[in-house]
Every structure is written in structure tokens, then in C-alpha cells.
Amino acid sequence: MLVFSKVFVGNLHVLKRPVSVALSCWFLVIGSLSALVSAFLGRHDPAMQAWMTDGVIPAGAQYAILLFSQGITLVAALAMLQRQRGARTVYLVWGVIDIAFCLATLPVRMNVLPGALMFAVICAFLYSPKANAWFSPRKAANDACMTPA
Asked: 75-112, pLDDT tens digit by residue?
């Protein structure tokens, strides 16, 4: 069921996942995987090492935080695709913590702005009325019972 845009409720009817949720989650999955690959491939890059030494935190700790953060984002996005409503909360809380942490530790705070704006847009999609209805098991069950076969 992970790959498709439909979710089965019981054996009766099929509910479609909102396009905004599907696009947001797949964007997060692909972005997290590419960030993990990029971090792995660039771990010995001199330019990356020089950029990371400008920060307050050592480079090794920055890599650990990056891996942890992208891991949380990846797991939350995959869970959201499977209609786990708590995953939205995990993504929201971790995103706020991550943005606050970046603002506190990065030397150039303007570098946080594009990511913070993208986070706000994704959260707006994930907490839209259609997404709220889709993530709500009670609302989805009521809709499934009322949908003609």
C-alpha cells in the first residue's frame, strides 16, 4: 500500500490519499535519501570540511546530527504515507527543534531561511483540512461507510 495513492478501509471501500500529502511525503523521502547519500559521499570533501569548521559544533557531531535528522524525516515521511497520524506530529516537532538548533549554531542564519520556508509549506500541506480528514481514522471510516459501492 505504500507506493499507491489509495488506502483500504476494511474490505468495503477505497479512500484516496490527498495529492498534497503524497507529494509532500515523497518529496521528504527523496530529499532525505539524497541528503543522506550526499553527506556520505561528501564526508571527506575539503570544501565541506572547511564549511563545517566555521560552525560552533565539531564536524563529526554535525554529521551525526545530520544523519539523525534525515533519518527521522525519512521514517516520518514513510509512516505518513502509511497513514500514521503521529508521524505528522513527529515531523512537526523535530522540524521546529531542528530550525531552532540551526539558528542557534550556524554562523550565517540566512542559510536557514530556505529550509524553514520549505518546512512551513510542507506543514501547511500536511495539516490542511483534506489531510486532517485523511489522517483521521474516524472521519475516514465515516466517509467509507457513506461512499456508494
From this structure: 999 999 999 989 999 999 999 999 999 898 887 889 89
What is the domain count for the chain?
1
Whether residue 106 lies inside any domain: the answer is: yes
Domain, as residue range, for 57: 21-137
User: Is 14 domain-assigned?
Assistant: no
15 in a structural domain: no
| 77 within domain boundaries | yes
Residue environment code for 110-132, b if the CB has 16+ CB neighbours within 10 A, otherwise e: eebeeeeeebeebbebbeeeebe
**Residue whose C-alpha is closest to residue 70's, from 98, 109, 112, 104:** 98
Could you tell me which of 121, 122, 29 has the C-alpha nearest to residue 75?
29
Q: In the numeric block, which cell numbers belong to residue 98?
A: 531542528
Give the model's confidence band at 139: pLDDT under 50 very low, under 70 low, under 90 confident, else very high. low
CA–chain centroid gap for 147, Å, is: 31
Q: Which residue type sits at 21?
A: V
pTM of the model: 0.78
Phi/psi at 15 (5° precision): -110, 135
